């Protein structure tokens, strides 16, 4: 398995194809295996690279210690992109990985040529129409509840709680066994998300992103993800299109990979 040492950490990754690089950033409770439905189709035209973020599988992290904050993952990915040595990349991020991709475009725009944000996870601050929050928001509360269940030994209960936060009632039961296995392998990363220090999306941050950006969401996703997509569409100077993936919820690249892959390839190849 290839790996790349960045910021003192060995990030393992998978790759397929040849040519200009396309880099995929997975979301919560996932790792590079999440992108299996994208590797071959995108690899027919590009060099597709999918790393596992710090502390995700194949590392067997117990949830203790430092290094799981959003800023750490952003800087790890910035170093990873630079280490590829192929110039600006086409970057695709899903959910928590979409948030990381957003922050990369905000802080390291020279590393990115085109950007795909697939339901980037987080919350909106008041400048983008979000409600003022006193104390932990709904997202942080869901993370804490799920992590507490995992810590108590109820791994399935914790994964179910998290899945329902992103996908609604019954979301865990609807997942394929492959996706459930990936979730179980990464269950203890939920402990890290309690104190990951993910800042809400702000108008100033969105207005700073000028790289051409495609926004993607599942047609059957949760309203909270649509609200983020709507706010970014209105605000990002680099907004270049929006696609709704039919017959798909939050995990659109897995729920309907053919439609997701087609939409992404059309955007990556457009002039």
Task: Give an overview of the whole structure.
GO terms for molecular function: hydrolase activity. This is Alpha/beta hydrolase. Pfam families: Abhydrolase_1. It is a single chain. The protein has 271 residues and is an alpha/beta fold. The protein has a single domain (3-133, 198-269), classed as Rossmann fold, CATH 3.40.50.1820. 42% of the residues lie in helices and 18% in strands. The chain contains 12 helices and 8 strands. It has an 8-stranded mixed sheet with strand order 1-2-4-3-5-6-7-8, with helices on both faces. β3, α1 (36-43) and β4 form a beta-alpha-beta unit. The longest helix has 15 residues, at 70-84. It starts with a strand and ends with a helix. The model has no long low-confidence stretch (mean pLDDT 95).
Topology:
Blueprint: E1 3-6, E2 9-16, E3 21-25, H1 36-43, E4 47-51, H2 70-84, E5 89-94, H3 96-107, E6 112-118, H4 138-151, H5 155-167, H6 171-174, H7 177-185, H8 189-193, H9 203-207, E7 213-218, H10 223-235, E8 239-245, H11 252-255, H12 257-269
Parallel strand pairs: 3-4, 3-5, 5-6, 6-7, 7-8
Antiparallel strand pairs: 1-2, 2-4
Keywords: Hydrolase
Protein name: Alpha/beta hydrolase
GO molecular function: hydrolase activity
């Amino acid at each position: 398995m290839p790996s790349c040492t960045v910021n003192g950490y060995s990030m393992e990754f998978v790759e397929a194809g040849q040519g200009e690089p396309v880099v995929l950033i997975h979301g919560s409770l996932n790792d590079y295996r999440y992108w299996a439905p994208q590797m071959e189709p995108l690899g027919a035209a590009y060099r597709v690279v999918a790393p596992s973020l710090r502390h995700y599988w194949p590392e067997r992290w117990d949830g203790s210690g430092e290094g799981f904050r959003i800023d750490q993952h952003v800087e790890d990915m910035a170093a990873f992109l630079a280490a590829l040595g192929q110039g600006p990349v086409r970057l695709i991020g899903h959910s928590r990985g979409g948030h990381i991709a957003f922050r990369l475009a905000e802080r390291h725009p020279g590393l990115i040529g085109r950007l795909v944000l697939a339901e980037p996870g987080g919350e909106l601050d008041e400048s983008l129409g979000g409600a003022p929050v006193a104390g932990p928001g709904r997202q942080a509360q869901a993370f804490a509840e799920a992590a507490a269940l995992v810590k108590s030994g109820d791994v399935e209960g914790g994964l179910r709680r998290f899945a329902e936060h992103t996908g609604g009632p019954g979301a865990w039961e609807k997942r394929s066994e492959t996706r459930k296995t990936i979730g179980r392998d990464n269950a203890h990363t939920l402990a890290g998300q309690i104190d990951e220090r993910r800042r809400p999306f702000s108008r100033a941050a969105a207005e700073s992103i000028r790289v051409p950006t495609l926004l993607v969401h599942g047609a059957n996703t949760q309203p909270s993800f649509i609200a983020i997509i709507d706010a970014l569409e209105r605000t990002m100077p680099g907004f270049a299109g929006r696609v709704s993936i039919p017959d798909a919820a939050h995990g659109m690249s897995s729920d309907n990979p053919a439609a997701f892959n087609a939409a992404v390839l059309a955007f990556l190849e457009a002039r």
